[in-house]
Amino acid sequence: MNYDNDYIRKEADDKLKGKFRKLFHQNNMKLKEHSASAGEDNGTDFYFDVTNEKEEHIFFFRNQNKGTFNDLPIIKNKDDVNFGKIYHTISLRNAINYYTEFDEAIIFTICDLNTNIIYWYDIQNDTTLKERIVKQQSDGINSIQIYISTENILNEESFEVFLKEINFSKINQIRKKKILGGNIEADYSKTKTDTEDKHVIDKIDYTLKLFEGIKVLPAKIIIQLYPFKGTENNTFINEFELYTDNEEFFDFMNGLCLKDDELEVESKEMFVENQKDKLRKIISFFQVNHIHHIRWKGKNPKLQICVHKLYRYGKCDCERCNLERLNLKRTNTLLNDDLKEGGNYETLRRGYTYYLLGDYKNSADIFLSVYNESDRSNNPIIYTISTYNLTRLKKLIKFNYYEDDRDTILEKLSSIDFDIDEPFINRNAPYFLDIYKGIKESRYFDDIEDEIENSFKEIQKLSFDDKFGGWISENGYYKLKSTFLRFTTYLEHNFIIFNQYSEFKNLSKKVLESIFALYTLKNPLTDKYEKFDWSILEMWIFSVDIGYSKYLLNKYNIKRIKIDDDYFKIIDKLNELIENLINSNEYINDFTNWFNPMRIDYILSKIVLITSFLDVEFKEKEKIILNIIHLGKMLEDKHIIPYDELVNFVEKNENEINKDLVKEIIDLFFFDEHKRFGFGRVLNIYSEKSSQLEIENLIKTVLKIENLEDIEINLDNRYLGKLLYSFTYLNEDLKIQIKNKIIEKLKENFDDKLYNLAVIYDIIDFDNEFFEKFISTIPDMSNVENNRHPFRSEENFRLTQTINLIFKYNIEIDNKLKSLVNKSHPNYFEYYSWLMDIDNYDYSKFNPYWILENQTVHYFERFKKSQKLKEELSKCLKENYIEGVAKIYIEELV
Fold it and tell me: Is 431 left (phi over 0), alpha (psi -120 to 50) or beta?
């Protein structure tokens, strides 16, 4: 029996709605179904309102549903990019509505009524649709085919992905509305029509002058400008390369050369006025826009042009570049010089530099002067930048500036608003429209964020696959790097104030993690990131916080950082940053403000952190650290000194560092009156490398005593505990004296902390009487309420130390010792029960995370002896691989 269209439609709709109801119900959501209005001819069948169980709205989405009893048409040509997909024809008008007009997400569905399988297609997320719509329109065709993946089956397994795609559709529609709002599009024809009779040098010069105030252009705009542009499909930028089939432009660039640091055409002809100056500006444009090569896309092959060989390198002496090199003194001098008249670029740069300094008041004054003096109609670009920056500064001053003149400044800025719109820009500078929207709506950031996010995800997938033998020839590094560098220079050279506190730093984190993932690839078939260059290290130093840096280093188990072959340049740059701070010491205190975009204390910490990992000769690291120490001695505010990272540097480079450098670092801890205690391991390392006399002098200095016989055994002096290990390197007579003093102290008034340190370092011998006293200090935590011990502090630390001593001295664990577990918090009872009887424990209750709790040499030595423990760990890791546990199992126990 044949089924008519009405029957098929009702069958398909019933199956779809039933499936939706079931799936949403299973995910604690309700589905309210509304048929699309009969009078609303927009190509949709249903309008769904999704709510939670309390009937609270979550989201809407529309649906167009089709059904068939016929075999679904599937593309079988393997050469077709849509091979294996279901194809279906819809009207072009509906496709345009779906893709551009609706605010809500639209899901297209097809029900196979023979198999009861429903396939879905998120049409608004199809990035190929826009170009295909344009082609169908230009060809006068009123229909278009859509392609539906046979993997998109509406069921429990795909439902989470289905919901995500609905969310992505909504986001995409918002962005499309921004792009298409008012149907106003940028017009770049002026760069062609106004330059047709000019020499190519003047063509480029004219085009660049149109964008006065904007030195770095988005790649998608550069390829629209003449004379860079050839034909539509043959002009594009990929990573660091510009492809074009504009023969006039290509041949001109091919005829340039750099001789004696001067640019010239090979024929040595002078074609235009001020030719040398114009050539310099043209190459500077390519340099700051990170275009390294120009490749030919026209007929008849031509060799690529290495534009980077025409770059001119030198140390810029402007205030912003000096600040980026941390030459605060020179920056301050330049800021106090009078501005040159008529230089919008220099004025904007100065305002931007004040912003980077955290001087929002002076930054606002500079941009306000540009705003008041710029001609809104004749110079909309400068007006746009100054207006936008003032709106950002207004927020920064409102929330981060608390000086007495705060209200006065805010009053001056109160009338500033982004009062220019698309029609105005279109009328006065249509070629600027896309950049204007990018600034106003942060669209350029959104695009960059998407690109970096996509690169990040691909690199994460590559890193994961690499662990299982997967590989790929193209690792995505150059795409990631070019994207990030363009964004960085877009801000820095266009002087656009951006949120350095969150968005930019979040991007930097993803870039750095991507680099780490590429750097640690193992499969030799995959191109990995071999060596760090300065651009990545500079980003790391200035934009990734110290805590996240350490997290990434640990996550990717990075032990050494290799740098470019000409690594002395990088070493020189690191030293230059510190030396500039030394020369600018009197200005450093201004950079410790919490809200300052640049924090010198954070920067110094990251320099030391990176230095500790550099795979270079240790003498090069030493130069950097000595510069840090020199700076630390000069600093008025000692809190800026990166104490923690200097300690970590000593520990990481323990085998290479000499005792003199260790002593220099130790001395930093005593330069002011603030007591600092986090350097105990550094004292130990110094003792291991030093002579007995040097150790004696160290102890005298730290404890501020004339003779070692005067040492007072009292842990109220917290430095004493740090020095106990150093005592073990003294001569026998002194060790005996100290030993007797400690024993006398313990007999007189037992100190559990002193006993634990003294017996662990073998300063005193193990003694049952003292050990019994030590055990008696174990607190009873069996009835302690959980809310009194946040952050996992339910651990009974004294009991942990007791077990450490038991393992160190191989003390037999009798029933009396085993009974100590009854003093543990309930959350730790099984843990301590296991430690007290490792070989006979009921391993059905075992938690492999326990071996991560206390990673001392004595714990590991005991674990090593237990074959039962190693067997159980092996089983646990097969069932549930825990990287930290696996690392200890492999490196310490097996």
Answer: alpha
789 close to 824: Cβ distance less than 8 angstroms = no
Q: With CA atoms as reference, report the closest residue to 659 among 633, 685, 678.
A: 685
3-state secondary structure 364-412: HHHHHHHHHHCCCCCCHHHHHHHHHHHHHHHHHHHHHCCCCCHHHHHHH
Residue type for position 652:
K
What is the DSSP code string of 502-553? Answer: THHHHHHHHHHHHHHHHHT---TTS----SB-HHHHHHHHHHS-HHHHHHHH
Q: Report the distance separating Cα 409 and Cα 405, nearest Å.
A: 6
Q: What is the per-residue pLDDT across 728-787, written as a single tens digit (0 to 9) for each?
A: 999 999 999 999 999 999 999 999 999 999 999 999 999 999 999 999 999 999 887 655
Residue 3: in which H helix or E strand, if any? none
Q: SS3 sequence, 233-278?
A: HHCEEECCEEEECCHHHHHHHHCEEEECCEEEECCCCCCCCCHHHH
C-alpha 436/C-alpha 405 separation (Å) is: 32
Residue owning tokens 């993946």: 149
The DSSP element (H or E) to which 295 belongs, if any, is strand 293-296
Q: In whole angstroms, what is the distance from residue 577 CA to residue 588 CA?
A: 13
Q: Which two tokens stand for residue 197?
A: 């009779």
Q: What is the pLDDT of residue 757?
A: 93
Where is pLDDT greater, at 589 or 92? 92
CB count, 10 Å around CB of 395?
Answer: 13
Return the residue matching tokens 């600027």: 432
The secondary structure element, H or E, covering residue 87 is strand 86-91
Instruction: Specify whether the CB–CB gap between 364 and 604 falls below 8 A.
Output: no
- In the numeric block, which tokens belong to residue 638? 């000692």
What number of residues does the chain have?
894
Pairwise CA distance, residues 294 & 285, whole Å: 13
pLDDT category at 1 given cuts 50, 70, 90 is low
Structural tokens at position 125: 């997320």
CB 804 within 8 A of CB 859: yes
Q: Look at residue 240 and tell me whether its pLDDT is greater than 90.
A: yes
**Structure-block tokens of residue 131:** 């170009």
Residue 100 in contact with residue 180, Cβ under 8 Å?
yes
Q: What is the pLDDT of residue 124?
A: 86
Q: Is the pTM of this model over 0.85?
A: no
Q: At what angle do helices 659-668 and 643-652 cross, to 10 degrees?
A: 160
Lowest mean pLDDT: which of 113-122, 374-383, 432-441, 549-558? 374-383
Helix (H, G, I), strand (E, B) or coil at 34: strand
Mean pLDDT in the chain? Answer: 88
Token duo for residue 304: 């690529």
Task: List CB contacts of 42: < 8 A, sequence separation 6 or more.
Answer: 36, 94, 97, 101, 102
Q: How far apart, in Å, do the first and last CA atoms of the chain sit?
A: 73
The residues pairing with 108 across neighbouring beta strands, listed in sequence order, are 64, 121
**C-alpha to C-alpha distance for 49 and 62, rounded to whole angstroms:** 9
Reference 311, options 273, 349, 256; nearest CA is: 256
The C-alpha angle 756, 724, 823, rounded to 5 degrees, equals 15
Residue 192 DSSP label: H
The answer to whether the beta carbons of residues 90 and 143 sit under 8 Å apart is yes
Structure tokens at 475: 């690792």
Task: Find out whether 637 and 655 touch, Cβ atoms under 8 Å.
Answer: no
What confidence tens digit (pLDDT) does each residue in 638-687 have?
888 999 999 999 999 999 999 999 999 998 887 666 666 677 889 999 99
